[in-house]
Amino acid sequence: MANVTLRNVRKTYTGGFEAIKGVNVDVGDGQFCVLVGPSGCGKSTLLRMVAGLETVTGGEIDIGGRVVNQVEPADRDIAMVFQNYALYPHMSVFNNMAYGLRNRGMKEAEVKTRVEEAARVLELAPMLERKPRQLSGGQRQRVAMGRAIVRQPKVFLFDEPLSNLDAKLRIAMRVEIRKLQRRLNTTSIYVTHDQLEAMTLADILVVMNGGQVEQIGNPLAIYEKPATTFVASFIGAPPMNLMSTRTEEIKSQLGGSAGDAGILGIRPEDFVITDQTPAGGVALPLTVEAIERVGAETFIYGSRAQDEQRVAATPGELPPGEVIVRIPGTEAPAIGQKIRVGAIRSKLHLFSGDGRSRIEA
Fold first, then answer.
1. Which residues, listed in sequence order, are joined to residue 273 by a DSSP beta bridge?
2. With contact defined as beta carbons under 8 Å apart, do 41 and 35 qualify?
3. Do both 191 and 284 map to the same domain?
4. I need a labelling partner for 203 at 20 to 30 A (CA). Which of 90, 97, 259, 322 fits?
């Protein structure tokens, strides 16, 4: 096991495109770090740099106290699980898992011991003689994970390993990966674009955007106190509602408490339907445009007045003027009905006008 430390890591491609713009991350021994962000944010490039599959333009990558910038991938003592299973179709499960060990000249008795132990942990023991075509998608992904586990590396790297699975299987495999990582206690770095996956897996969450780190920290701490409007709208489903504090409606309610803030954020679950403006909080009139009943909770999509346009945010942003309210149960107002929703002061998030910093009132 080992720490992984990235110090001002940069990646610039021919032509001057800077894909990674000075990233600093410290993953402690045995921790599970998740890199999350939209497509093109640089998370997979950063992971491949740790693996040695991409060269480092600047900065240092340190694994277990050793700078590995110039070290070949095979000598970094890491194991990687890719998005596609990359199994050899003509080989059995046992031979797929054993292949890398045999290539390193390991004795067959040790190979057998390691493969059988990994198969037991992954519940693959009854399938060791099967070929990949005889396995389900989830079973194939477990074989790919087993191939990494038998290496007994210092660091596991996961590059969107669940993206090819259906929704139900993704949930099951997500739980299995977390249980497995805790059992093995191996330092792990995991890349995903799925914020729910990131929130549930991570000890350390690294939110990336445009080749830079927007925020690093505990997943729940990031959810509760996003540092920027990008993080606020990317982490959380549905996204946080963001609106200007400069409109007369909101300015009059916030008064001087808004300070230098230019953007107000309120999460959908922090609204309640009410006739009163909460003390120190904010209330908004809405016209109900759509309703989504998803079982234990209901999403209300409401529109504000046309002159009260919402601040443009980030990928996944809501249409201008739209507000989402999440309420428990299935009871909801009728489409077209006018309602008033409010949020108390402690549930309000304030950001600078450019959305690049959080403002604590």
1. 341
2. no
3. no
4. 97
Could you give the number of structural domains in the chain? 2
Same domain, residue pair 109 and 223:
yes
Q: Which domain holds residue 292?
A: 237-359
Same domain, 273 and 185: no
Tell me the two tokens of residue 32: 């599970």
What is the DSSP code string of 161-223? Answer: TTTTS-HHHHHHHHHHHHHHHHHHT-EEEEEES-HHHHHHH-SEEEEEETTEEEEEE-HHHHH
Does residue 138 contact residue 169 with C-beta atoms inside 8 Å? yes
Q: Report the C-alpha gap between 315 and 347 in whole angstroms.
A: 23
Q: 42: which 2 tokens?
A: 């640089």
Q: Is 313 exposed, middle or buried (0-12, 13-18, 19+ CB in 10 A)?
A: buried
Tell me: the pLDDT tens digits for 199-256?
Answer: 999 999 999 999 999 999 999 999 999 999 999 999 998 899 998 888 777 888 887 7
Q: Answer yes or no: do 21 and 103 share one domain.
A: yes
pLDDT, tens digit, 9 for 90 and up, residues 264-290:
999 999 999 988 888 778 999 999 999
Q: Is 65 in the same domain as 199?
A: yes
Nearest to 292 by CA among 238, 349, 217: 238
| Dist CA 186 CA 252 (whole Å) | 53
Residue 98: CB atoms within 10 A of its CB come to 23
